[in-house]
Structure formats: C-alpha cells, structure tokens
Amino acid sequence: MNITIKTRYSSHPEDFKSYGTKEIRNNFLIEDLFVTNNISGVYSLEDRLIVGGIHPVDKPLQLEAVGQLKAETFLERREIGIINVGAKTTIEVDGTVYSIDHKEALYIGKGISNVIFNPSKEGKTFLYFNSAPAHKNYPTTKVSREDAEVVTLGSLENSNHRTIYKLLVNSVVKTCQLQMGMTELKPGSVWNTMPAHTHDRRMEAYFYFDLKDENVVSHYMGQPDETRHIWLKNHQAIISPPWSIHSGAGTSNYTFIWGMAGENMNYGDMDTVNPSDLK
C-alpha cells in the first residue's frame, strides 16, 4: 500500500492563543507532502478535508482507501480535486486517461472506484490534492488555466499584485462542497490575501510552491485580534480553521493553491478585516 494519511484534530481559538511555535507547527503545518512513490497527506477534522501530495517517480500509484474513511474505496463517499504542480502527466479514472499539464486541475467525483496516477518521463510528477466528503456524484472534469475564472487584484505599489485562477469552483465545475484555485503573485509582490478575511462556514488550506532557492513565506493565522505567524518553505501546506485569517508574505513572489470545504459554496462569503484592525 503506497498511501499514508495522518489525522489532525481541530482546535479551539481560545486554546490557540496559548500555542507556541512548536504547537502551531504540529497542529497546522504539513511539511512532507511529496514522498517518493507515495500518496501522503493529512486528514483534518476541520470539515474533514484531506490535504495531500502524490509523487509517483518510477511506478504508477493507485488511490486506495485509508483507515480513517472506513470505506471500500477512497471515493466511496468523497470527491477529490487535483492540481498538477510538476511535469505533465496522466491520470487514469475508471479506465479513462486524462493528460494533465503543469498548473492544470482535475476534479473526480464521488463513486469512482479506480484512480491511477502515472509518473512523468522525468520522474517529476508532483500532484497536490484536496478531498472532501460528498453527497452526490458529479462527473470527472479537467480544468485548464484557460477554462478557469480569472481575476486580477491588488497593485505593485501595495506589494500584492496577483492573478487568481478559480479552477474547481461552482461557477466552473459542479462539485458537492470542494472548491480549489490557484493564485500567482506578480514579480515584486509578496503579499497574498491582504486585506485578510475569515469565513465561519468553511475552512481553508493553503499550499505554497514556485518558491525558488532559499525563499520562504511567513503565513499569518489566528483570530484578527490575536494573530500568529509560521514560516513555510516550498511544497508545504497549512490548515486554516474557519475562525482564522489566512494570509502571507514571502521573501519573493510565489504561487499558492487554496482549497476550501464546508457549508457554503459562495466564493465571496467572507468577513474582510481591515489591515489596521489586525493585532
């Protein structure tokens, strides 16, 4: 079996106020997403989202059920969204093969029994995924950057000029509750999701990549009046509870993938926080 999923429990905002660096990293940071010839990740009790990475190097990997799901197959009661952050590769879904290029996405709905991830010729297949519980079967759909809903926000003057690609959202593809997209920061910009916000009816996970050399991102979380920070490297992810802001600033520009699960599918359902009100 080439799949390893660990469990992370949810946390209370009052408890979070007492966390030091070690507790924050242990509870929210996901460091080793890409393990050779393995599917790795975390089953979070925040809306039961699974956050993971798939790294086939010299053999195909099959999506198998894990103990937390108590199911015959991984997607028996779940949906999954996959975004390719590596070389072009193929994914086989119940016998149908999909070619997925760099920064393209694939949605696979509830009830699919056989999913196989193939290595690229260079062995540089890196697939990031989020999986959420699902109540209905929607069709497998590939989404390219050209298919996405695209929004450009911010400015270079405010160091937050960025383009948002809404890939797996309900305005582009039918899903039960999972929403995923990708934000690219322009050269010279380092801030993401600023002004910051919270959304009580859904959690979120961030995955940072396109960080070159020794560059890092300082990710900010916590309630708006009680924030903390944590440093992330390339190919690392972080879990954000519904009560927490999720924002970051890097030592260079970068790209990040956001994924959400919860009660509301409305992308704009958020409570914005003015930067001057953050503490």
UniProtKB/TrEMBL annotation:
Pfam families associated with the record: KduI
Free-text comment on the cofactor: Binds 1 zinc ion per subunit.
Protein name (database record): 4-deoxy-L-threo-5-hexosulose-uronate ketol-isomerase
InterPro entries assigned: KduI (IPR007045), KduI/IolB_isomerase (IPR021120), KduI_N (IPR027449), RmlC-like_jellyroll (IPR014710), RmlC_Cupin_sf (IPR011051)
GO biological process: D-galacturonate catabolic process; D-glucuronate catabolic process; pectin catabolic process
Family that this chain belongs to: Belongs to the KduI family.
Highest taxon listed in the record's lineage: Bacteria
Main function: Catalyzes the isomerization of 5-dehydro-4-deoxy-D-glucuronate to 3-deoxy-D-glycero-2,5-hexodiulosonate.
Catalytic activity as recorded in UniProt: 5-dehydro-4-deoxy-D-glucuronate = 3-deoxy-D-glycero-2,5-hexodiulosonate
HAMAP family from the UniProt entry: KduI
EC number annotated for this UniProt entry: 5.3.1.17
UniProt entry keywords in alphabetical sequence: Isomerase, Metal-binding, Zinc
Cofactor(s) in the UniProt record: Zn(2+)
PANTHER family, A to Z: 4-DEOXY-L-THREO-5-HEXOSULOSE-URONATE KETOL-ISOMERASE
Residues that bind Zn(2+): H197, H199, E204, H246
A GO molecular-function annotation: 4-deoxy-L-threo-5-hexosulose-uronate ketol-isomerase activity
Cited Gene3D superfamilies: Jelly Rolls (2.60.120.10), pectin degrading enzyme 5-keto 4- deoxyuronate isomerase, domain 1 (2.60.120.520)
Membrane-crossing residue ranges in chain numbering: none
Pathway membership, UniProt: Glycan metabolism; pectin degradation; 2-dehydro-3-deoxy-D-gluconate from pectin: step 4/5
